[in-house]
């Protein structure tokens, strides 16, 4: 009875191999011409005390019956009796081989058809994944998604997120992720935004830089392109998603009071009084003791910022020049820079307290948080403002 139980559980163990056979066939498929077949043999001893000779033998067979490899797995009867045959060792061994041969593996039909999302995610997490470049890996992941797009879009963000996007050519990232289907997934929008920001300003996201730029064990480095080319890509991205520039809600109140904050203010002049055209006596008014004054607007969601308008208040209080900073999370900030010389831009503000002065950004930024840093002013730091741009489609 005990022997029959062991034999049956060993047979079950062999059947569990079926889950991994597509992976094993992928490994051998590039070595033979034709369809790779397989056979499973289960052997156990008739000896009731056999402790080590219950085994499963897998033979991978190529064209004309030529063996392309075999795996012999041996477990004790006690192990089979306890049911500890989840094939973790086989899975790890298979992944190691797939990582070594990833360039050939990912181009096979079996890879596209049979690898599931969890298996691909596990493979992409490996530092020893061998490939010509991270861009190659990114392209292979996109091919895998497209092969069964309807069912795989549910895991698209996870597997794309496992790619080290900071090492991928930004042109490829934009071309693949800036599509109607991909833009419907919020997590992919975030990955695209972070990739763009990192390409322009690597210091803009320390978390992205740490997690998405770690090299694998291959000859690869961060894909770079000339700054002018990068701006062309970003402008193309903008053109597809943002063709207008409208007030974003400071003047009309669509941006709530709670979304407008500042480094300091006089009691009667809080930051939410910084709404354009709200009256000559009204504005945000920073304390003169503030060593680094700023006013911040939370746009509530990632938004294309394309322009800023400023205005002062009566008694000749106005800001003459200022800088802009932007952030996707309100923690890590980037200062808006000149596209050619890459210097922090100083914008011209007001020359009197009443006239509205608007500036257009040569290179719009996709951001949620915006800060205005007054640099020079007359009599005091008093600002009313409006932001211009458009929301994502």
From TrEMBL:
Domain F5/8 type C, residue spans: 242-390
Q: Which GO terms describe its molecular function?
A: signaling receptor activity
Q: Where is this protein chiefly located?
A: membrane
- Classification via InterPro entries: BACK (IPR011705), FA58C (IPR000421), Galactose-bd-like_sf (IPR008979), Neuropilin_MCO_CoagFactor (IPR050633), PLAT/LH2_dom_sf (IPR036392)
Cite a GO CC annotation: endomembrane system
Keyword annotations: Cell adhesion, Disulfide bond, Membrane, Secreted, Transmembrane, Transmembrane helix
What GO biological process, any one, is recorded here?
cell adhesion
Name recorded for this polypeptide: EGF-like repeat and discoidin I-like domain-containing protein 3
- Name of the gene: Edil3
């Amino acid at each position: 009875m005990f022997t029959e139980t062991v034999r049956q559980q060993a047979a079950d163990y062999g059947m569990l191999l079926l889950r991994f056979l597509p992976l094993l066939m992928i490994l051998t498929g590039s070595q033979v011409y034709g369809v790779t077949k397989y056979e499973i043999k289960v052997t156990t001893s008739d000896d009731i005390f056999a402790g080590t000779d219950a085994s499963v033998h897998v033979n991978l067979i190529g064209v004309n019956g030529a063996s392309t490899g075999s795996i012999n797995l041996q477990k004790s009867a006690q192990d089979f009796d306890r049911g500890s045959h989840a094939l973790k060792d086989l899975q790890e061994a298979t992944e190691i081989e797939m990582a070594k041969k990833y360039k050939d593996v990912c181009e096979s039909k079996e890879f596209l058809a049979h690898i599931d999302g969890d298996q691909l995610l596990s493979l992409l997490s490996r530092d020893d994944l061998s490939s010509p470049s991270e861009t190659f890996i990114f392209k292979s992941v996109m091919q895998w998604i497209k092969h069964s797009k309807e069912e795989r879009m549910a895991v698209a963000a996870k597997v794309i997120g496992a790619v080290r996007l900071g090492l991928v050519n930004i042109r490829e990232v934009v071309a693949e992720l800036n599509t109607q289907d991909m833009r419907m997934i919020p997590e992919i929008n975030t990955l695209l935004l972070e990739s763009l920001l990192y390409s322009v300003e690597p210091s803009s996201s320390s978390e992205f830089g740490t997690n998405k730029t770690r090299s694998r064990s291959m000859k690869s480095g961060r894909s770079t392109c000339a700054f002018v080319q990068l701006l062309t890509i970003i402008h193309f991205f903008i053109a597809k998603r943002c063709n207008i520039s409208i007030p974003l809600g400071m003047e009309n109140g669509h941006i709530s009071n709670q979304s407008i904050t500042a480094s300091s203010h006089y009691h009667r002049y809080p930051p939410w009084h910084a709404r354009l055209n709200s009256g000559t006596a009204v504005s945000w008014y920073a304390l003169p003791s503030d060593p680094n004054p700023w006013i911040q607007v939370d746009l509530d969601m990632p938004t294309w910022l394309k322009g800023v308008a400023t205005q002062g208040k009566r008694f000749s209080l106005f800001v003459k020049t200022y800088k802009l900073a932007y952030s996707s999370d309100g923690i890590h900030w980037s200062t808006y820079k000149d596209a050619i010389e890459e210097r922090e831009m100083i914008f011209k503000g007001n020359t009197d307290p009443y006239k509205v002065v608007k500036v257009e950004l040569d290179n719009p930024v996709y951001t949620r948080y915006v800060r205005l840093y007054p640099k020079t002013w007359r009599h005091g730091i008093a600002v009313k403002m409006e932001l211009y741009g458009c929301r994502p489609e």
